[in-house]
Structure formats: C-alpha cells, structure tokens
C-alpha cells in the first residue's frame, strides 16, 4: 500500500501542490487526470523525490518518509522501491536496450550480470522487444524507446511503477503499442500510477481514477463513477472539454 | 629581487604606447582574413572544381601548423622569393625596402583567413535550407537571398566564433615580437630587460591583454543579445 | 637573409628535427594530462556552485583564456621562481622544460575545465533523473551515466585542446627549451637555410596534427557509436563552448 499524506510543493511563490492525500492499494492501477498545470506530474515526481515536497509524507507499506526529515538514505530506499517511466523516455543514450534494463539490476540491486541479463531479456520480451536487445536508443522509434523504458522499470520488480504521461511525446500512430504494453502489465497485478491524457485508456484500464486541478485532488473514485456520474462541477467541465477534443481529433 | 608593485603600473603605462601597434596588427589581419575567409568559404560551399580542393588544403595546412611557422615562412620565404623574381627581371627593387610589418600582416592575414573561412562556412551552413527556399519562393534572386536572408542569420550564428577568432588573433599578434615588430609583448620584453624587472613587466602586459580580451567579450555579448532578438525563446 | 634556397636541405632537416619530436610530444602529453587534473579541479566549484571558490575559478579561466600563452609562459618562467623564493623554495635548478609543461598545463586546464562544464551541462537532465529513478546514488549516476556521455560529447573540444597545445609548443623555444622549434632555430642559424628548416618543421607539425585529428575522429566515432548522427550535426556544435581559436570539426559539411 502506498500512502501520500499532505503533500505540498511550491516553486518559488507558486504553490503547485496544496496538500495532497492519496492512497493506492496493492495491485491498483491509478490514473491521474487533470488539465495542464494542475500539478499531476509534480505529484508523481514527489513520490520518488525527483521533486522534494515541502511538506507531507510518502509511505510505501511500513516504510515512511517524512519530507522534513528525509535523509539521503531514505530517499535512496524510496527510489529502490519505486520505478518511473518518463514522458520522454530518458533511456540512457550511451547504452543499448539490454544495457538500459540491466543497469539498475546490476548497479543498484547488485545482481550478478548473468542473472540481470536473464531478467532484462525477459522484461524486454514482455514488451515485445526481444529482437531489439542490442540496439541503441537512437536507432529505436519513440514507441520502442518507451517500451524499453517500461521494461527498465518492470525488471526492477518495484512496489510501484510511476508513469509520467508515457504516451504524450509519441506520434499518434505509436501510442497504441505503448498503451497495449501498459494494459498488459496492468493485468498482471502490478501496482501503478499513471498520469495521462488518454481518457479512454484511463477509463478502460484504471481501477481508480483521480482528478486533479489547481494543486488539489478534486474528485476520485472508480472509473465508471468518475466518468459516468462525476460529482464535482470542475470534473464535469474537464471531461466535457476533453471529450470535445477527442471528437475534433477524429 | 622583490616584487615591485609600483613598477607594474609604470610598465603598464609604457606598454600603452605599443597598444596601437597590437590593435593595428589584429584589426588588419582579421579584416583581410575575413575577406580571404569569405572567398575560401564560398569556393568550398559552391564546390568550385579544383579551387575547392586548393582551398581545403590551405585551410587544413594552416590549421595544422603553428601560427609561428606561418610567420617564419613568410618572413624568411617571401623576401627571398621577391628578390629572386626581382633579380630575374633585372629590377632594382629589393625586399629590403619593404617594412617588416608588411610581412607580419601578410602572414597573420593568411592565418586568420583559414580560421575565419571555417567560421564563415559553418555559419552559412548552419542556416536552415528552408530559409533560402522561402527566399526563392517569394521571388528573390540568389545574391538577394544570400545578402538579405542567409548572411544576417549566419552572422548571428557565428558571432561567438568570430569573437573567438578576433581574440585568438589578438593573442597571436604577440608572436610578432619574434621578428622585431614592437607590439605589446615586445615592448614588455624591452621594459623588462632594460629595468631587470621581468615579473612586473609581464604582469602589466598580461593585464593589458586580459583587459582588451574582456572588453571584446563584453562587446560581443551585448551585440549578440541585440542581434539574436529574433532567436529568443523556443525549445532549445 | 640566409643562403639560396636548396631543396635538399628540407629532406636533410626532417630527420634532424624528428629527433626532437619526442620532446615536443612529451610536453603535449604531460601538459594535457596535468591539464585534465587542473581542469577538473577548476570545473568542480562551478558545477557544484561553491561560493568563493566559484569566483576564483571564473577568474582563473578568464585569465588563462584572456591572455596570450606567450605572456603566460614568461610570467610563469620569471614570476614563479620569485614567488617560490618568497616561501624559500629554490627552483633555479629546475629545467626550463618543467616551467613550459607547467604553463601549458595551467593554460589547457582553463580550456579543459570549460569543456568539462559544457559537456556535463549538455547531458540531458532526464538522464540523471532516470538514473535516480532506478535507485542510483548521485555518485553512481555521475560516473555511470553522466560522465561517459560527457566524455564523448567533449571529445572534439578536447581534441582541439590537444592540437592547439601541440602548435603552442612551438613557443617554448622563446625560453630556450630544446624541442623541435628550438632545434630548428639552431639548425637555421648554423646552416643559414632558414626557409628550408621552417618548411621541414611545418611539414612535421602538419603531419602530426593531421594524425592526431584522425585518431580523435576515430575515438569519437567509437564513443558516439550510440548516436551515429550526433557526431556531425551542427546544432550540437552550438551547445559546446566556444573554446580556443575556431575549432570546427569537418562535420560542418553535412549540414
């Protein structure tokens, strides 16, 4: 179980997160929706301390990190329990697909190379890239790169995987392959939080949907409830706008 | 021998008399070098047969050898060549009547030309091809398109490198002392040896060069900001 | 001004000068290696934003890039012994070559520190974040992810520093150091065939520069094999610092 309590974050004078509480149960797939600038990416980055919250607590099972007292070691441990998939992939440019996935296993988890290699190959096969093991990122399409990114996170066998808008840097025709992979691993009971703009995907795959706006959680609940009978006016507005955008894009 | 701070100032003032010479050498060699460099760059960009290869060799050779060699080769070689030609035609003219400074300027211009040609070439090539196409599309002719569209953008792109070349030539001008042209460094040598105060004299010279360099850098960065107005923002 | 031009002297001088090539190369190698150390030390305060030290390193870089190397050579050669005398260390027996190497090390250190800084800055911020996200420590992220990429990125600039250093060694003769150019002076004076000796000397410098440049290109191609197109894009050149005299790689042609 992952539990965020009272997370606050400001950049200069601007308060981006105004005290967020969020609980994610084991095996949950949580989708965070919200307009640009609502703070959803920042919230995600606070979970593994890529952004250090100004206030609040992050807890993964029994392991609790209070941002006021967080030591380097705490942050390090927190990061070992989590994994992240980035919007622009952030694959290590000087390493092949296989090396990218092995890197964390060998350096952080200190697995023997042979074992790390096995796990890495498995993960890459799972995302359908068993034939691209030795390619450098620059030779892969955006969709393939993002799948390597997912494999890199998956191989670490973390408590939770954080997806930061995993498809928004992709060309439209490549979005599908990445969503398919996420859908597949979501079905395997891995806990994850996905910040996304893909409404249909969130509706189909998520077990729990969170709508954020202006640094607060406006509304959360199971997808059928949030999409079907949203309680808050702000949620309704957002959904209406988003649905209009879809229809334009079709 | 103790450091004499007062003498640093004395040397500094003495060196100022040689400043015009340093600036003259620098400005002339960069100016002439710019003309040479532009021609070389165009020969290579437009891939003029034979000439482009000569140009490429010139650039590689000059960049692959010390500036001091260019100076020595011209200083010793050119007069010999002139005298040989003069003798062959029975002229009374000899190289001895040409001031040393001329050889210095010729040699440094040749050096600067090679470096500047690379600056100019890469500046022009850095301008998006679409810019030229757009210029043609609205009916411009090649010279118009080059002059009005490509060059201003190329200049903005190459400004930092131009400033580097200028500073490089400023520093390089100190080599002229080896052939007895009295610029700042030579003057510092004179001040140092006549007073037996080497350290002070060279500190003064260093400060003078440093000051000019910083001025050039500041000037260029102001110019850069002005010129790059169109380039602000965007995802870099 | 010397005797009549005779071609054979060029051939005659080349082997004589080559005998001193090793000294020239030694100066280059020693000063570049020391320069790397200096460069790293100078770059660190600015990368880690350490108060006071940061300003000092800015001044250091500005000075060594802002004055002719000839001046630096003379300053160190005449100034350092006096400064050291102040703390009663006698360096009057130290060979000229040591001063030359020391000066060139300080000089290239300034340029190398800029190269390091620029290269580290050029590595995408996301690379570090990804490293942190998979649980690496700051040190691991730097050594395993940032540094290898930074080294590859800075290689062309580093190559320029080395080649510039090679060319600058020609100035060491002004202090009486006996490397190739120093030797050329004596050869010129004894034979009075100056033009020939400088032609020979230029040819040697030229060949050595070209070889060095090729070697660095090979190394770069190897190190950047993960990004084949990177070696030649002009946009990348603009991210790099403007170091030295113009320092363009051949890559410009592909733009």
From TrEMBL, chain A:
Q: Which CDD domains match?
A: ABC_HisP_GlnQ
Q: Would you tell me the Gene Ontology cellular component terms?
A: plasma membrane
Q: Which SMART domains match?
A: AAA
- Pfam families xref list: ABC_tran
Annotated keywords: ATP-binding, Cell membrane, Membrane, Nucleotide-binding, Transport
Cellular localization per UniProt: Cell membrane
Q: How does it sit in the membrane?
A: Peripheral membrane protein
Q: What is its main location?
A: membrane
Zinc-finger: present as a keyword of the record?
Answer: no
**Keyword Zinc-finger appears in the UniProt entry:** no
Q: Which PANTHER family match?
A: AMINO ACID IMPORT ATP-BINDING PROTEIN, L-CYSTINE IMPORT ATP-BINDING PROTEIN TCYN
What protein name applies here?
Answer: Amino acid ABC transporter ATP-binding protein
- The organism is Paenibacillus roseus
Q: What is the lineage of its organism?
A: Bacteria, Bacillati, Bacillota, Bacilli, Bacillales
From TrEMBL, chain B:
Q: Which domain of life is it from?
A: Bacteria
Q: What is its main location?
A: membrane
Q: Which GO terms describe its biological process?
A: amino acid transport
Q: What is this protein called?
A: Amino acid ABC transporter permease
Gene Ontology terms, cellular component aspect? ATP-binding cassette (ABC) transporter complex
Q: Which PROSITE patterns match?
A: ABC_TM1 (PS50928)
Q: Which Gene3D superfamilies match?
A: MetI-like (1.10.3720.10)
NCBIfam families, per database record: HEQRo_perm_3TM (TIGR01726)
UniProtKB/TrEMBL annotation, chain C:
The way this protein sits in the membrane is described as: Multi-pass membrane protein
Q: Which UniProt keywords apply?
A: Cell membrane, Membrane, Transmembrane, Transmembrane helix, Transport
Question: Which PROSITE patterns would you find in this protein's record?
Answer: ABC_TM1
Q: Which Pfam families does the entry link to?
A: BPD_transp_1
Q: InterPro entries from the xrefs?
A: AA_ABC_transptr_permease_3TM, ArtM/GltK/GlnP/TcyL/YhdX-like, MetI-like, MetI-like_sf
Sequence ranges assigned to domain ABC transmembrane type-1 in this UniProt record: 21-216
UniProt cross-references to CDD domains, sorted A to Z: TM_PBP2
Q: Name one GO molecular function term.
A: transmembrane transporter activity
Q: Where are the transmembrane segments?
A: 20-44, 56-77, 97-120, 141-163, 197-216
Q: What is its main location?
A: membrane
State whether keyword Signal applies: no
GO biological processes: amino acid transport
CC annotations in GO? ATP-binding cassette (ABC) transporter complex
**Compartmental location:** Cell membrane
* Family under the similarity heading: Belongs to the binding-protein-dependent transport system permease family.
The record's PANTHER family line, in alphabetical order, gives: L-CYSTINE TRANSPORT SYSTEM PERMEASE PROTEIN TCYL, MEMBRANE COMPONENT OF AMINO ACID ABC TRANSPORTER
Protein name, entry field: Amino acid ABC transporter permease
């Amino acid at each position: 179980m992952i539990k965020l309590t009272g997370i606050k974050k400001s950049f200069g004078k601007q308060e981006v997160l105004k005290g967020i509480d969020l609980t994610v149960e084991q095996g949950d797939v949580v989708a965070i929706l919200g307009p640009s600038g609502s703070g959803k990416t920042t919230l995600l980055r606070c979970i593994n301390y890529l952004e250090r919250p100004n206030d609040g607590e992050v807890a993964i099972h029994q392991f609790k990190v209070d941002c006021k007292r967080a030591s380097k070691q705490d942050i390090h441990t927190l990061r070992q329990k989590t994994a992240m998939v980035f919007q622009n992939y952030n694959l290590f440019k000087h390493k092949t697909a296989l090396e990218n996935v092995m890197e964390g296993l060998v350096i952080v988890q200190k697995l023997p190379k042979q074992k790390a290699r096995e796990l890495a190959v498995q993960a890459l096969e799972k995302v359908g890239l068993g034939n691209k093991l030795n390619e450098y990122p620059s030779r892969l399409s955006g969709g393939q790169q993002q799948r390597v990114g997912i494999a890199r996170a998956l191989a670490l066998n973390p408590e939770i995987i954080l997806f930061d808008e995993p498809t928004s840097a992709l060309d439209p025709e490549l979005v599908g392959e990445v969503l398919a992979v996420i859908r597949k691993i979501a079905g395997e009971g891995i806990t994850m939080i996905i910040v996304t703009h893909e409404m249909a995907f969130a509706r189909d795959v998520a077990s729990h949907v969170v709508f954020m706006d202006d640094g607060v959680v406006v509304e959360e609940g199971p997808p059928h409830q949030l999409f079907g009978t949203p309680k808050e006016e702000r949620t309704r507005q957002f959904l209406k706008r988003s649905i209009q955008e879809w229809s334009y894009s079709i | 021998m103790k450091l004499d701070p007062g003498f640093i100032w004395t040397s500094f003032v003495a060196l100022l008399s040689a400043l015009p010479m340093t600036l003259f050498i620098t400005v002339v060699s960069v100016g002439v070098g710019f003309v040479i460099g532009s021609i070389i760059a165009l020969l290579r960009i437009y891939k003029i047969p034979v000439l482009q290869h000569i140009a490429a060799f010139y650039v590689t050779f000059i960049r692959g050898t010390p500036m001091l060699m260019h100076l020595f080769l011209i200083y010793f070689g050119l007069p010999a060549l002139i005298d040989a030609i003069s003798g062959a035609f029975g002229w009374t003219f000899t190289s001895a009547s040409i001031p040393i400074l001329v050889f210095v300027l010729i040699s440094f211009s040749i050096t600067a030309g090679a470096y500047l040609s690379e600056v100019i070439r890469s500046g022009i090539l850095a301008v998006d091809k679409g810019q030229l196409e757009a210029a043609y599309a609205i009916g411009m002719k090649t010279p118009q398109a080059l002059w009005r569209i490509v060059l201003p953008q190329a200049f903005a792109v190459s400004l930092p490198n131009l400033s580097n070349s200028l500073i490089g030539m400023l520093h390089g001008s100190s080599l002229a002392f080896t052939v007895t042209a009295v610029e700042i460094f030579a003057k510092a040598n004179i001040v140092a040896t006549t007073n037996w105060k080497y350290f002070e004299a060279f500190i003064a010279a260093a400060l003078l060069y440093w000051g000019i360099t910083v001025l050039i850098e500041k000037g260029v960065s102001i110019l850069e900001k002005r010129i790059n107005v169109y380039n602000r923002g965007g995802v870099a | 001004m010397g005797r009549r031009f005779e071609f054979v002297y060029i051939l005659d001088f080349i082997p004589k000068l080559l005998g001193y090539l090793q000294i020239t190369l030694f100066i280059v190698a020693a000063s570049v290696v020391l320069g790397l150390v200096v460069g790293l030390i100078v770059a660190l305060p600015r990368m880690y934003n350490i108060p006071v030290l940061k300003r000092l390193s800015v001044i250091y870089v500005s000075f060594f890039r802002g004055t002719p190397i000839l001046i630096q050579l003379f300053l160190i050669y005449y100034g350092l012994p006096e400064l050291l005398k102040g703390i009663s260390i006698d360096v009057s027996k130290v060979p000229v070559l040591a001063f030359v190497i020391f000066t060139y090390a300080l000089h290239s250190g300034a340029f190398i520190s800029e190269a390091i800084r620029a290269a580290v800055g050029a590595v995408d911020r996301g690379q570090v974040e990804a490293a942190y996200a998979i649980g690496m420590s700051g040190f691991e992220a730097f050594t395993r992810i940032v540094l290898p990429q930074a080294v590859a990125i800075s290689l062309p600039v580093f190559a320029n520093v080395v080649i510039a250093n090679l060319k600058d060694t020609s100035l060491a003769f002004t202090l009486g150091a006996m490397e190739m150019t120093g030797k050329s002076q004596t050869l010129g004076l004894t034979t009075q065939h100056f033009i020939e000796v400088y032609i020979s000397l230029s040819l040697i410098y030229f060949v050595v520069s070209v070889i060095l440049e090729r070697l660095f290109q090979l190394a770069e191609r190897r190190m950047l094999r993960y990004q084949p197109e990177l070696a030649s894009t002009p946009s990348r050149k603009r991210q790099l610092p403007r170091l030295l005299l113009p320092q363009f790689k051949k890559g410009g042609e592909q733009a």
